[in-house]
Prior knowledge:
By secondary structure, this protein is an alpha+beta fold. The chain is 29% helix and 32% strand. The chain has helices at 46-59, 85-99; strands at 6-13, 20-26, 32-37, 66-70, 76-81. The chain has a 5-stranded mixed sheet, covered by helices on one side. The radius of gyration is 12 Å and the shape is globular. It starts with 5 loop residues before the first strand and ends with a helix. The mean pLDDT is 92.
Amino acid sequence: MTDGGIELAIRLTPSAAADRIDGPVTDHSGQSRLKIRVRAVAENNRANRAVEALVAKRLKIAKSLVRVTSGATCRNKILRIDHDPEDLSGRLVRLIGEEGG
């Protein structure tokens, strides 16, 4: 958590069959990430914009509050979500429970 928002580590799969949030995974370095798939291709920032829109929609916040801040050209990314951290924590827990099973 940071002041006025959170940073979320994700593992993005572009060109997927459907837009979905699969749930938490642990990468090869032992870091937990949220696995997300989007239909958009990984060119011209399309997949990054798609993941921002998907996360915003699922959290029921404005798209402008979600942005990729690290890893723009790789699968492992950091999303910055500008919103009340306590509210976001609750929303993320519910989201992972609903979609990540």
